[in-house]
Amino acid sequence: MTSLMTNTSSMVALQTLRTINSSLDDTNNRVSTGLRVNSASDNAAYWSIATTTRSDNGALGAVKDSLGLAKSSVDTVNTGLDTVRNALQKVKEKLITAASPDADRAKLQTEIGSLLKEVRNNAKSTVISGSNWLSVDSSESNYNANKAVVASFSRTGDSVQVDTIDIDTSKFKLLDSNTTVHSAVDSAVTTASATYSTAATTATTAFDTAKTTATTTYDTAIGTADTTFAGSAMDAAAVAARDAAYATAKNTRDSAFTTAETTKKTALDGAVLALKNSLGASGTNDLGILDKSRVAATANGKATVSSIMDIDISKLTSSQNDLDQIANYTSIVDAALTDLTDASTSLGSTASRIESQTNFVQALQDANNRAIGSLVDANMEEESTKLKALQTQQQLAVQSLGIANSSSQSVLSLFRG
């Protein structure tokens, strides 16, 4: 039956064309965006997973930026430490020169003072993002020696975790302007130095007394032996007996000397140790590498207390006491150089860890991008083929609809006479 009101063929052709147009729109959208899942309506599960992963990737990007900033900070501090170490090495060389008998120590002190000023300026100018890790004031309320660098972001179920790399700047700070600690250290230096000086004087006096007593005893023993054998016939037996008396006297004296030396050294070593302990208890170890008070002592018991920044040889002479002080200054600088080397080693290890973590975070981002792509990216080869097929189907559907619509025109032939 042919009906003018209801054209079933046209309705079917129109529905087919609508379906093809809808599929063509979807395919065009995939081709233009490169995604097969653009919204939750396309695939709710995949869209949810991809959206969460994209969010995590954004967090990882922030972590990578934080690591980059931390790496820059560590590199800047390392540069500052290297500059200071080079200047301090020159100070050490000047002190070695100052140990020469004819050295002009006043001029050498001028050079040393210039180098120490350069060191202070370098420490104060090593600024990273508005903060200074080398020249600090630990008395400030907002001071925190621990610098926590965001190092990772991870998700377990609905919970997330942010981990950090902790950098303890107290291990390599150079200067600390904490006046409270400096005052305590200065007071401790005065007291401990006086105590050491008294102990050293007592030990030296005891040594000199013991040495004098041993020498007197020796001279008396030699005199007695000479008197004993002076009037006798010096046959072989008498000579042997006299020589034995001499030897006994010498051994007794030498033994007394050795005992006195050991006693003196033990006393001086104890005094130096007490000096170091007193300074340690005063808080000097809380100061920086360059302004902490250090103790150095020569083998003969001459001790010197000084920080790197307080070294002054301008008034020292070529006396043994002053030469010992120069030697102690050299030891103090050498100890500071060792601390700087340890600090650079620690920072180098931290820089290596930061770089490794940066590479790991980048690898995580790449893995997440691949996971997102596998879920929501469109297969462009497949979509291209589908697009061409749908375009062909659309053209055929349009023609089919035209044919279906033209069928009603045949009714007119029934009414022609």
Automatic annotation (TrEMBL):
Pfam families: Flagellin_C (PF00700), Flagellin_N (PF00669). Residues 6-135 form the Flagellin N-terminal domain. Gene3D superfamilies: f41 fragment of flagellin, N-terminal domain. It is found in: Secreted; Bacterial flagellum. Keywords: Bacterial flagellum, Cell projection, Cilium, Flagellum, Secreted. It comes from the Bacteria. Residues 331-415 form the Flagellin C-terminal domain. Flagellin is the subunit protein which polymerizes to form the filaments of bacterial flagella. Belongs to the bacterial flagellin family. This is Flagellin. It comes from Ancylobacter koreensis. The lineage of its organism: Bacteria, Pseudomonadati, Pseudomonadota, Alphaproteobacteria, Hyphomicrobiales.
